[in-house]
Amino acid sequence: MSDPDPTIPARADGTTADHGSTGAATGSPRGSLLRASTIMTLLALLLSWLPLIGPLVAGVVGGREAGTPARALGVALLPALLLGLLVGWLLAAFDLPVLGAIAGVGVAIAIIVQLAPMLLGAWFGGAMADDSGVRSAR
């Protein structure tokens, strides 16, 4: 049997608690934002044939991975904002800055409206992960 890693905190009973990147040992649940974003995107694509339920499920699962409601909402909104910026930048590159700004904001708003079920699911998933992290720290 190998010696325990001194960087992993020891419990009162002498065993070690290796919780990886979730931060559950400190009571603050933190997941991977990249993984949460990937999960949300893939599940949204795979469940796209379910109009409201698909994005809601994708949001809950990805939000739980993100760890907190604020991080989950950020992960769900980031692709919409980035796509809006990309459209605006692309039209501005063709000497259409005003049209680019209007189109970029319009695209971002349209995507955010379409993401409403995913945002709701992300908030619930993040809240579930936040609650479970607090309970495991007690």
The general outline is elongated
Helix segment count? 5
How much of the sequence is in beta strands? under 5%
List the secondary-structure elements in sequence, H or E: HHHHH
What does the average pLDDT come to? Answer: 75
Category by helix and strand content = mainly alpha
Record field, number of beta strands = 0
- Largest sheet descriptor: none
**What is the helical fraction, as a range of percent?**
55-70%
Termini separation comes to 30 Å
Low-confidence blocks of residues = 16-28, 134-138
Give the radius of gyration: 20 Å
Protein described:
The chain has 138 residues and is mainly α. It has a domain at 52-131. Helices cover 67% and strands 0% of the residues. The chain has five helices and no strands. The chain has helices spanning 33-46, 53-66, 69-93, 97-114, 116-137. α1 (33-46) packs antiparallel against α2 (53-66) and α2 crosses α3 (69-93). Residues 16-28 and 134-138 have low confidence and may be disordered.
Brief summary:
This protein is an all-alpha fold and 138 residues long. 67% of the residues lie in helices and 0% in strands. The two termini are 30 Å apart.
SSE blueprint:
Elements: H1 33-46, H2 53-66, H3 69-93, H4 97-114, H5 116-137
Helix pairs in contact: 1-2, 1-3, 2-3, 2-5, 3-4, 3-5
Features:
single chain, 138 residues, mainly alpha
